[in-house]
C-alpha cells in the first residue's frame, strides 16, 4: 500500500490522450477534486452525477448541490438521478462511455450493474486510512476516537461498504484543536491530488490496487442530530473530542433548562475543582461545565434563534441559578 503525501505517493505519468471521466459527488468536500479534474489536461470530465436538488435556506427553495453548481459554472453536463441504480440511469451512463468514474462523497450505494459500466470501474476517494473508519463519517470518527493520524484513500469500489482494493493513500496529522470541518477541509485538498494521480496511474497502467487487510476494520456510521448531543457523564477528554468531531455538522448541543443550545469546541481544565456532570459554574475567567472527570470551559454558545456568541456574553444574560444544569 502506498503511503506518504499525495504529491509523492504517485508519480507523474505520460499520456497519449485525455481519459473520459464521469465524476460523482455532492457536498463541498468534493469540490477540490472536481475542480482539479476539470482543470487537468489528462482528464475529460464528460458529466457530473450528483444528488437531486435539495431544499435550502429559509424559503426551502430547491438548490443545486455544490458539485452541481461547480459543474454548471464550467459547462459540464449535470445528471441528478433520483435512483442511480435504475435501468434508466445505467443506460444513460452507458451512453456516455466513461473510461472511469471518480467518486467523492456522492451519498448513494451503487449496484453491480452500475459499477460494471466504466472500463476501469469506479474509484472512490474516502477520507480515512482504510480499512479504518469505513462508512459515512470517517473524519468525525477519527477525531472522536482520539486518533493521532488519519488520511485519505483511493480504492476500487465494490458492492460491499468501502471494502475494495486500494490504489493509494495520503496521510494527515490530526491537530489537537481540529474540528471535523478543519480536518476535512485539509483532506479534501490533499485528497484531490491523490485522486488525480490515481486516475493518471490507472490510465497508463502503472497502478495495480492492493486488497485491504482483513484486520483493523472499523466502522464510522453517519452521525445523527441525536448522536451529536453532549453526554456530560463521560470523561472530559471524551466530551471535548466529541464536540470537535461533530463541529460544524450536525453540531454539538445540550439542554439547559428547557432550551436547546448549540455548543462550539471546549477546553479541558485539569486545574479546576471538579464539578458534578452537567453542573454549570459561571466564574470570572470562564463558564465551566462538569463532566465525569475534570470540568470543561465553554467556548461559543448559540441559543435558539440567536447567533453564536461567546460563553461569557451568554452567561451575562442567562440569569442561571446555582443549580443550573446542562443535560
UniProtKB/TrEMBL annotation:
GO CC, alphabetical: cytosol
Reactions performed catalytically: L-methionyl-tRNA(fMet) + (6R)-10-formyltetrahydrofolate = N-formyl-L-methionyl-tRNA(fMet) + (6S)-5,6,7,8-tetrahydrofolate + H(+)
Keywords on record: Protein biosynthesis, Transferase
CDD domains linked to this entry: FMT_core_Met-tRNA-FMT_N, Met_tRNA_FMT_C
UniProt entry tagged with the keyword Transferase: yes
Keyword Protein biosynthesis belongs to the record: yes
Its EC number(s): 2.1.2.9
The protein's role, per its UniProt record: Attaches a formyl group to the free amino group of methionyl-tRNA(fMet). The formyl group appears to play a dual role in the initiator identity of N-formylmethionyl-tRNA by promoting its recognition by IF2 and preventing the misappropriation of this tRNA by the elongation apparatus.
Family stated for the protein in its record: Belongs to the Fmt family.
Protein name: Methionyl-tRNA formyltransferase
Gene responsible for this protein: fmt
